[in-house]
Amino acid sequence: MCADRSIINNAVNNANRITPVDPAIEAYMRGLVASTDHPVLADMEEYAHMHRFPIVNRLAGVFLQTQASMVNAKRVFEFGSGYGYSAYWFARAVGEDGSVICSDADPANRERAAQYLTQADLWSRVQFNVGLAQEVFAQTGGLFDICYNDVDKGDYPQIWLMAKDRIRSGGLYIADNVLWQGRVTMPAYQDPAMGSTAAIVEHNRLIFNDSDFDAFINPTRDGLIVARRK
Fold it and tell me: What does the alpha-carbon distance between residue 230 and residue 183 come to, in Å, rounded to a whole number?
């Protein structure tokens, strides 16, 4: 893509955004769950704010933990773990005998995750691998109760195709940012040249058209898709 086209696309992306759930509703919902949170979360969220690091928020985190608990997840694989914010929620759900297998290309994120999750007494439940998520996954054998996807959005279709046959019956595939600030609703973004949005649209289409899975999108924050293997 030429530089001029990239600048134009970025301008369009920034101008056309929809907040899926009214902020007042999200604030109310967050108020209901705030008292159950560990103090370390405030530090993790402050780091994200200061460094403009994308993480799921607390509402999405509670949702991840609830989904994992409902399917009695004991083995979770994360495609793209950052510094462990989503792993915090999964680790709470899997229990002392469970495992959250994390992947991130930046070794500094592993160090930061170790610090935070040790404070929360959850680090022993985490296997944090430094490397490309796809490569870590290919090197990790077995089935999973949950595969969670939060990598670069252009890779979403590839991750779905990799993960779907490695999820046990009754297990879940979950991905963040599947509404992409509402841009998935806008016809102009269906052009493959638009990059991330087109990839997310294709990712969502593949999941909802897969007869082996039941799927639903929770619009909280930026949209979380949950697909259950039948």
Answer: 30
